[in-house]
Amino acid sequence: GQDAMRCSGCGIELQTEQQELPGYIPQKALEREPVICQRCFRIKNYNEASSVAVDQDEFLKLLGQIGGKNALVIHIVDLFDFEGSLISGLQRFVGNNPVILAVNKIDLLPKVTNWNKVLNWVQKQCKEHGLKTQDIVLCSAKKNQGFDRLLEMVSTYRGDRDVYVVGATNVGKSTLINRLIRDYSDLEQELTTSRYPGTTLDMVNIPLDDGKFIIDTPGIVYPWRYSEMVTREDLGAVMPENPLKPMVYQLNEGQTLFFGALARFDFIQGERQSFTCFTSGRIEIHRTKLERADSLYAEHAGELLSPPNKENVAKLPEFTRHEFSIKKGSHTDIFISGLGWIKVNSDQGAIVAVHAPRGIRVLTRTSLI
Ligand code: GDP
């Protein structure tokens, strides 16, 4: 409204109700001077960016504003949840502004990974999704890999542009920005967005020590990922922290794998072959017969089959079945957004199905590794 209080850091309208949304300020902090939102407060006082999230409509409005500016965009995606975290509509909104794609969490792939192959794979995926990228960097915000490359790119392409960092929630955007703050920022300077007087961009300008700014945008919530569907306690099990230990299963047709009670994979038809599961080590995989799978789930979801526990199983939407016919001679992953993927190792072809909570994005793709 007209007399709404605004954050003197980023200009956002302040609110005291919802901590995960932009503009949150604890009631008590309203008495402090200067009046700044919690997000700005943390950057200023703890050198720490924290996540705020907005829905897709809200985010598209923000993106629209970037299109009209002279900007360099850093688009962060999560390699573990590539198709789930890619902002596929980005191209329409950024106009002619250059985009650097930062593919984060590469530390999760096995150490022996062929990174050139991964890079080629990412390039192909971008093409398929209609995303033009000026450059692509594979990085790990957690393990501090790829950052020198990223900063080199930023200084190569930025010219006199502002740098906007965009990404879905949980891709590691805060972790990455915190790295940048720690290594390159000058927080003696003000955080303010005085350059955009009177506007509310929901963006935080972080001064770098060369007088330039990095602009943190809110994370976009994509609801088709497990990370948005499970409870906070199960999030730790679903999102891997350590390098994936791929699990190989030799299956006959008519066999099923359960991923806790989170998802189920049926090998319906095909020659005996092996499938490699790339999922968090904290999700137990349970093998059974396809004909027993329904009753096993009905009787043991939340107990033998966990996570989640019984209480949280009940909170998940009902399973939807996704059937796929894997072509002969293809190199295919069955991708389950936020949970991981299953690599089909044989090139003999197969018919398989995935059961996952309604709304979870499940698809096949060319094998990542
Ligand atoms: P944001 O929502 O995009 O700001 O994401 P955060 O920075 O809060 O990170 C989300 C989760 O991903 C946290 O549990 C981080 O520890 C984890 N994370 C962030 N960067 C990396 C990374 O490079 N590798 C791995 N394995 N995890 C990461």
UniProtKB/TrEMBL annotation:
Transmembrane domains' residue ranges: none
Q: Which domain of life is it from?
A: Bacteria
* CP-type G domain mapped to chain residues: 56-223
User: Which SUPFAM superfamilies would you find in this protein's record?
Assistant: P-loop containing nucleoside triphosphate hydrolases (SSF52540)
**UniProt xrefs under Gene3D superfamilies:** P-loop containing nucleotide triphosphate hydrolases (3.40.50.300)
A single Gene Ontology MF term assigned here is: GTP binding
Q: Pfam families under this entry?
A: MMR_HSR1, YqeH-like_C
This one is known as GTP-binding protein YqeH
Organism whose genome encodes this protein:
Paenibacillus pini JCM 16418
